[in-house]
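User: Predict the full complex structure for these chains.
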Amino acid sequence: MDNVEALKLKIAELEHKLKSLASKNVREKIEVMSSEVVDSNPYSRLMALKRMGIVNNYEDIRNFTVAIVGIGGVGSVTAEMLTRCGIGRLILFDYDKVELANMNRLFFQPHQSGLSKVEAAAETLRNINPDVDILTYNYNITSVEYFDDFSRILTHNSLNNGPVDLVLSCVDNFEARFTINAVCNEFNLTWFESGVSENAVSGHIQFIVPGETACFACAPPLVVASNIDEKTLKRDGVCAASLPTTMGVIAGFLVQNTLKYLLKFGNVSNYLGYSALTDFFPTMNLKPNPNCDDRNCVLRQKEFAAKPKVEIVKNVVEDDKPIHEDNEWGISLVDESVENDKENQNVGSGINLAYTLPGRGVGDGENSKSDDTSLEELMAQMKSI
Amino acid sequence: MVDESTRKTLSSIPLLKTKAGPRDKELWVQRLKEEYQSLIKYVQNNKEADNDWFRLESNKEGTKWFGKCWFIHDLLKYEFDVEFDIPVMYPTTAPEIALPELDGKTAKMYRGGKICLSDHFKPLWARNVPKFGIGHAMALGLGPWLAVEIPDLIAKGVISYKEKTG
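Assistant: Here is the predicted structure of the two-chain assembly.
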């Protein structure tokens, strides 16, 4: 009996300890972002962007909702960066669990193994910055049963119950990218596609404004040329390699361009690639394909064509004096810009299409005949073979 | 890209016509009929060629498929459960075929036992939308995967022969 009492005491003591540990260093919510430079202000260095003239409206970041699909090597780091930047609301989608095999990437920790990625991420992120409102959805967006819910959340769950301001695709497969593409085309949502190659040494981000830039279905996926002989690539025994470095670089690109898009500073890249082996960073613009297979993409293209074009006003800072008084060597700038995008096939240097789509189809072959047999009969026939 | 025997098998699987996915209601029913007709023909061909290697059936909506596949190695028959969902963007995106009982036993799988398809599969599929169906996914995806992986897994002792009843 004494033992039981002693154990109970011990439990009480430990519970108390746990509570004090948990409450230690938990920061309270902050109502308004302050630019005051004090050690206790988590936003001082971000608000300093205003004083430096980089961003005019940093505190607006709290009004934005960003959805991240795929909370893996890229998505989790993306979520952490946006959380630290003080984004208004984050909506996280993933159906997977944290595994020890994920530990070569950033963000998740071994003790989180077994937890769902979205739940584990939300806990860490709320701890980092309780001002960010985080919603989590633990399901597979490519499955028929969750598709409608996925669409509904993207179109209704922003901070003002409207469509989200931006969707970030951080998924690792074609099916999920295609699903995001379909939803974004249908509901006119702006999104970024991102990816890291299966050999872990290249990656890219692509900015997709339905109707305005190429969608994911406009052309076969683009791949950054790896400059290694494909035949020397050993694929035996594994599906995918990954590096925290490449994923970190891509997450950084993604969030940097997200901030530029949301807070309207700098230029947002339409396509930015990264080849790790050669430290090569191709960029380019992609026009939508008028014959895109996705009818919503074609619809958005028509809407965009009908809209009056916004003239991009360039802020040219006129300098009174020439930079150099004299030009002894006769150095001058030569316009090297090439007219590109004549067609989508003409992709930038160092970037290839993952595959080409020749005249559709394999040609001859017996078509499956559709006759009067009902589906039920066919199902029964299949079962009875 | 595709070897001669696969090409031959492929050419005997009836192609499909209707480009429709599970969101397309009546058209999906039409597509599903074509899928079943094509699969029935494929299985019959396999039986005639003494190369019967799988059975599949689906739920009523045709969105979830399940069944068995088997592989003969040294005169012993190794049988595995097969399952996959029809993705919402089908047939533009191919189904991800899974063998759940082999999950974690080979690196050539994604989580949940989804098989790792060759580099060639997706481009080939993309070029043949909407003509390719489930039968083609089995012939080009699962068939070659089993032929490479199962002998290897048996040799490594990861899977062993189980006497099946019936």
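The first helix of chain A runs from residue 2 to 23.
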